[in-house]
Design the sequence.
């Protein structure tokens, strides 16, 4: 299965992500975001953190997740280099728990491709397919 496919977009950066499971879809969307921000292989982790998010629906949860990864990388300077995702029932509809392995931004600054401002809702829809799930993600760059 091809997990990531770049989509042509006039002003922003888009990609389609596919996975056999919903946690896999979130994992590959996170990997797609990181590939848009950093080139090449990333170094072994420096630390770990647990991230917990909830939302009314899966699309909102995906946008919140990707935007949290952007925040961690660019504001807290903790670049996620490893992702382990669990989706859970949440108070508001759905929830996510992610174990993130990270490195300090200074260790990957030479691989930084440019700022991603945010993940957007533009054209976002998580769909069930015969092979699992797919989503189209557009990043504001």
Sequence:
């Amino acid at each position: 299965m091809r997990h990531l496919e770049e989509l042509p977009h006039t002003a922003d950066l888009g990609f389609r992500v596919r996975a056999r499971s919903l946690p896999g879809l979130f994992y590959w969307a996170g990997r797609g975001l990181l590939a848009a921000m950093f080139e090449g292989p990333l170094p072994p982790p420096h630390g770990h953190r647990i991230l917990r998010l909830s939302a009314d629906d899966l699309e909102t949860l995906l946008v919140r997740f990707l935007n949290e990864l952007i925040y961690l990388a660019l504001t807290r300077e903790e670049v996620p280099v490893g992702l382990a995702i669990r989706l859970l029932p949440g108070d508001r509809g759905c929830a996510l728990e992610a174990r993130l392995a990270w490195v300090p931004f200074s260790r990957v600054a030479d691989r930084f491709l440019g700022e991603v401002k945010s993940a957007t809702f533009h054209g976002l829809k998580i769909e069930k397919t015969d092979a699992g799930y797919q989503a189209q993600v557009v990043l504001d760059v």
Summary: Helices lie at 22-37, 58-74.
